[in-house]
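Handout, section B. The chain below has 725 residues.
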Amino acid sequence: MATVRICGAEERCAQPSIYIPNRLDVQALQAVIKVMGGAENLAFLVEDSFLPQEPLMKKIKATGSEVLSFNFRKSDSRTLRERLLEVLQRGLDILYVPGRPNQALGCLSDVPMPFMMHLAALHIAPVPIFVGFYRDDVRQTFTSESNYDRAVVRILPKLASGPQTGERLLQAWMEASAEAFDELPLLNKSLTRLIVEGLRKYSDVELIDGMDETRLPYGKLLGVAMAFARWLKKNVTEPRVGVILPPGKGGVLTNYACLLAGIVPVNINYTSSDAAFAAIVRQSGIKQFITARAFMSKLPQFPWPKNDQIIHLDKTLKGIGMPKIAYWVGVAKVAPMPLIAKLFDIDKRKGDDEAALLFTSGSSGEPKGVSMTHRMLVANMAQLLSKVNPPIGSAFLASLPIFHSFGLNVTTMLPPVYGYGMVTYPSPLDAKRINELIEKYKCSLVVTTPTFARGMLRRATPTNYDSVQYFVTGAEKLQQCLVDEFMEKCNARVSEGYGLTETAPVCGANLDEVGPTPEQPWYVSSYLPGSIGHVVPGLAVKITDPDDDDKELPLSERGMIWFKGANVFKGYIGRDDLNAEIFRDGWFKTGDLGSVNLNCFLTLGGRRSRFSKVAGEMVPHEVVEQAIEEFVTVPEGFTGRAVAVMGVPDAQKGEALVLLSAVHHSKLSDALDAIRAHMVEQGLPRLWCPREIIPVEAIPVLPTGKMDLRGCQMLAYEALNIKVD
């Protein structure tokens, strides 16, 4: 029998009020009735075309209480409001009981947008009720079904009266959802334990290294990781160790071994400049580094540390010896889990203890250290797997670097926990090979960036993506033309997601479309072109004025995005000055602009840093880039980004836009005139047109596929002879 926890009974209003839950089932309804002092104090409100499910409706009728019905298409708000006010004046509370729409996994609410709008238009200040159903399993933790292990029913403070009630209702539910999720016991689990249990349970699932197509079953992988962990425990004295390895057997093995040894892996960007690498070493305090001799030979320009600081993975495993490794493979296979837990003390570090340390890309400055705790990583696994459901045993493409937050958590740490395989490849730029691997090993999940995806499309065959259930891009805006081209050539739907290193990383993702069924005409969509999809469950959002952190805006208005939730970090290491600017009452200021609609879709408006103030008007670089990219002709075989818009100082207007172009190298005046004419034709203000074109060999891009903003700025400033402050 599931447990139901009732919270916030003290928030029940002294005066009769209308109560609006995000969902209800029979057990949750019984809890609400108990809080209200019995059904005799209640009237129930239902919608004729969206009736509660039969067991719930049967329970409502059995109470003998008054049932008020309406039809949002036929009932005008004024008439319904008068009717409800009359019931409230008789001293009864009103409980709205929603039906069950057709919807995707992990939706926050069972109330589709049309009903949210209609209820908000009543202009009767409601009392929100949050109802959350949870399983005691990191896989699909969130559920809207009644097969849950525990439920939370929380009465929330009454909302203020006035317009945009729907937005305030949604925000109250989101905040309560984040709080309830953060309190779940499963988030206190050790990530190390989850990985070890998964490697044992799915011992026959394989890691396939795309470089040589060798297969490493998870059972054997665990044994080798144990052997290496014992060596690390004896030979690494610092709490953290640097890891300089690409996605592959070595990178995955090393990260698991570090967790088993109780050492924090610091996966380092191996394309870092000397200054960035020095900053990472200084901030993290690492003194030893794990890499492989073959990998070192491929990166002669990297500022490698001294040889006595380097642990050569290949040499070390050879030194451990095959007999000892074979012994640990046997232990991994036959030893009981309590013995393994004791041997490696795998539960010593969990919850808010640091599991890994990553550094931001440094696209606009010095890299910043983000401590990834066990809680953060486990929470985001649960959030992601409550939105997607690939078949057990299917493979994830793992080509994003492990120093990338998605590459670390989603394609390195998550797969063994749930029994997904890995197909690794060290470079997301090798489009032809990646396409071949996706098709050959039937990958179900592919995550990349639009920049890398363009290269993949040019080298794709119509059957490359037949197995792909989820093809998600992030790090930059996904253009509709790229979506259309993938669908036309490969019958593959590419969708847009959104994540941050600071949120471990997934914040939202578009999924396959959900529509009406003959049994249920009402649905909550899970795909909205132009958005980044639903906010993941358990993550709360608020929106503020971009220029005033203290001025909160309705969710539906574009402004600064703030997050709160179990997957959100606590601050950059050693940067108390910066942390004071980006945290407010537990909320994290992302630096991104956006808005959320009543179906919980988040639409981005660009980074605050990617706006220029031209003659007093805020101009979004990404909107200008998109308009130009859709217009310019890209040469055959061209890969990478074609253009980038940057802001530069301007004596008359404060700032001006310039266009870095990798596809314009002659007749620049004619090209600029054509671009300006196209932008005006598209309805964009003349003020938004670039002042000039700066031809470049290539637009600087980071290894993660994200535009290198600092590199682009340097190109623009150097071309125009502008001194950097």
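Note. The chain is about 35% helix and 25% strand. Compare this with the example in section A.
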